[in-house]
Amino acid sequence: MMREDEEVSELARKALQADGVQVLVSHKALRCEREGDTKTIVVEHQGRELRIAFDALLVAVGRAARLSGYGLEELGIPTGKTVQTNEYLQTLYPNIYACGDVAGPFQFTHTAAHQAWYAAVNALFGDFKKFKADYSVIPWATFIDPEVARVGLNEQDAREQGVAYEVVKYGLDDLDRAIADSEAHGFVKVLTVPGKDTILGVTIVGSHAAELLAEYVLAMKHGLGMNKILGTIHTYPTWAEANKYAAGMWKRAHQPHRLLQWVRKYHDWKRS
Q1: Which residue of 9, 148, 151, 176 pairs with 142 in a disulfide if CB–CB is 3.0 to 4.6 A?
Q2: DSSP reduced 3-state for 135
Q3: Domain assignment present for 134
Q4: What's the mean per-residue pLDDT of the chain?
């Protein structure tokens, strides 16, 4: 989980260990060996070779599109790991479109469906109007327990890109529904533009994180900020209230102190 903030990957590691999983990081797989009925994988760690016995081995190295055998080479359509397309999802030939994993740049089912709309509409009505595929707000989730879901920038991204940000973090151990469901662990972390309620990115770790993220995806897509989320009624007791409480924390951090001082003086005067 190298693309996540360190606190996120650390929480995931602890959760896996709590379930009895031995997590080994910075270990490079070298080879597999077998002696009789004993199977081992040889790994390198800090310059030393270690042997780990196993019953079964699952190799997760990602996937690549199979692009040969479809006539793309004969047509001269450029291919590498994916089929080369333009912003309208057209290939070298404007009447041939590609979308989904085969077109990239994402390998998510939801982005494939997103691209399919643009490819279909552009293919059918491109003579009148074409639409550029919009990748401005792409959510993703890691379905471990607890779930990890993110949209936009996290702190690691913001630092690498030199983007100024403020951060607010709401712990799910304070959420009534999480407590009632015995799932009171994790957090909602929101990055905003300094001094504004504009959302730069959100990371959620916890039960139902991917579902909770949808509200922020909608907000970022349509330019809604933390004030709009705070002003929206959320059913009690639900997981979605975590988003409102995070917005409330942001609001308290940006309360108008001078105005509140005048309000206090006014009510002191009224009581006197």
Answers
A1: 148
A2: coil
A3: no
A4: 94
Q: Is residue 185 part of a domain?
A: yes
| Cβ burial, residue 88 (10 Å; 0-12/13-18/19+) | middle
**Residue 195 domain flag:** yes
101 domain residue, yes or no: yes
The answer to whether the Cα torsion of 140, 185, 218, 136 is positive or negative is negative
Q: 3-class secondary structure for 97-133?
A: ECCHHHCCCCCCHHHHHHHHHHHHHHHHHCCCCCCCC
**What angle, 0 to 180 degrees and rounded to 10, lies between the N-to-C axes of helices 241-253 and 209-221?**
60
Residue 41's Cβ-count burial label (10 Å; 0-12, 13-18, 19+) is middle
- Which of the four pLDDT bands, split at 50, 70 and 90, describes residue 68? confident
Q: Return d(Cα 58, Cα 56) in angstroms, integer.
A: 7
Residue 64: the pLDDT is: 85
Rounded to the nearest 10°, the torsion over CA 79, 93, 88, 119 is -90
Give the pLDDT band (50/70/90) at residue 250: very high
Q: Say which amino acid occupies 72.
A: L
Cα separation, 10 vs 4, whole angstroms:
10
Write the Ramachandran bin of 191: left for phi over 0, alpha for psi from -120 to 50, otherwise beta: beta
Number of independent structural domains in the chain: 3
